Amino acid sequence: MHLIFNDQTFSFELLRTLSYAPYGGADIGECLSTAYRIKEGCFDSWYTEWRKTAERMHRLAVESRDQGNRVSAREFYLRASNYYRTAEFFLHGDPQDPRILDTWGSSRSTFREALRLMEGRVEQVEIPYEGASLPGYLYLADQTPRPVLIVHGGFDSTGEELYFEVAAAALQRGYHCLTFEGPGQGAVIREQRIPFRHDWEHVVTPVIDYLLSRPEVDTERIALMGISLGGCLAPRAAAFEHRLAACIANDGLFSNQFGEMGRKLHRGNDADLDDPAYMDRFIRGLMAHHTGVRWAIENGMFTYQAASVAELIDKTEPVTLEGVAHLIECPVLVCDAEADHFFAGQPERLYEALACPKTFMRFTTEEGAEEHCHFGALQYFNHRVFEWLDRTLGVEAASTAR
Questions:
Q1: 378 with 362, same domain?
Q2: Is 255 a catalytic site residue?
Q3: Looking at the DSSP assignment, which residues form a beta bridge with residue 123?
Q4: Catalytic residue among 11, 64, 107, 228
Q5: Of 25, 320, 377, 382, which residue is most buried, by most CB within 10 angstroms?
């Protein structure tokens, strides 16, 4: 699926931004007009044009708020948040770039302004974590004990983005929803400087501990969804955290080892890749010609706090469910996208390794849901996933309607 750009990475990230329109995170014309102004493959042009659009939405939000137009202000703030997030996306090649904190910070602050104008109950939460904290948002359908869906992102997600992707749909179906950022994500990497870790159970356990303290939570029906890289991290957590009633991998990911990726891209003697200096030259050569590789390496070094390609490879070596997946006890939904350019073949590997009750859910080109994490078809994705979750948790769909 190509949208405006021939460059696959730019096209996909435009689709991702546009996909949040059904849940208030984008407007179609705003996204397309922004994309037409961008120089293909140029990270600075991407930043400049999305920043312009975000600032315009931000100004309109403030004007609407000052005029007492609550609905319009909320809508403008939500779109500004998503566009600021999009603008910041390709900036991680220089971790000291001041635009990172400034632009991401604007994405967070505009989202929180929107929260103040929402009708339902939403709480900003800080979950204690190893002497630090994990920021999150607790979305409550009402004040009664209900099933809760915990949602975290992956390699590049922010907590604010998760509202558009899943939380809004959860609320519509009567679920409480807790979204949070872990190590390597959002504020945790940008402000607290805590990088990714592979043993994600140490991240999810304090989140569940927090939920058990809340009277609104049905403690027997807590589910976990991990998105993108989270499709490996969430199953990893479920293998050791048995208080979960269900786990959703969107999309399923068995391993995310950068060394393995390098070997797949290599066309020469694989023995050469055992030389860190050769691997570094090889990967940097790819980065010079492939936008996606450049972004993946730069964002990987940013989120794992790796000083070199070799160090990034070492730090991602433990990111695998080999010898772990069979320990999961709760039901698992493994999602798969027919044309996933990131995870091709990975969902099947995860599904085959599971020994628990399991479901494989494939999304197709015919459905318009074939892209990674089903961007472009989020309403359809949420329809199918929440039907599975209703059945798995024993939730009566009619009783969850708000």
A1: yes
A2: no
A3: 138
A4: 228
A5: 25
Q: Which domain holds residue 392?
A: 121-256+319-402
Alpha helices in 68-200 (DSSP H): 70-88, 98-115, 161-162, 168-172, 186-190
Instruction: List strand residue ranges (DSSP E) for 285-368, in order.
Output: 332-337, 358-363
**CA–CA separation, 177 and 335 (whole Å):** 20
pLDDT digits (tens, 9 = 90+) for 115-162: 999 988 999 999 999 999 999 999 999 999 999 999 999 999 999 999
Q: Identify which of 79, 87, 35, 37 has the alpha carbon closest to the alpha carbon of residue 57.
A: 79
Give per-residue pLDDT as tens, 201-252: 999 999 999 999 999 999 999 999 999 999 999 999 999 999 999 999 999 9
Identify whether residues 249 and 386 lie together within a single domain: yes
Let me know whether 180 and 249 are in one domain.
yes
For residue 196, the 8-state DSSP code is P
The verdict on 112 and 244 lying in the same domain is: no
The answer to whether residues 158 and 184 touch, using CB atoms and an 8 Å cutoff, is: no
Q: Kindly tell me the sign of the dihedral angle through the C-alpha atoms of 122, 126, 129, 134.
A: positive
d(CA 144, CA 139): 13
DSSP 290-301: -HHHHHHHHHHH
Angle at 393 between CA 390 and CA 397, to 5 degrees: 30
Question: Do 187 and 198 share a structural domain?
Answer: yes
Structure tokens at 18: 């546009």
Residue 317 class from Cβ within 10 Å (0-12 exposed, 13-18 middle, 19+ buried)?
Answer: middle
Task: Extract the tokens encoding 182.
Answer: 């872990």
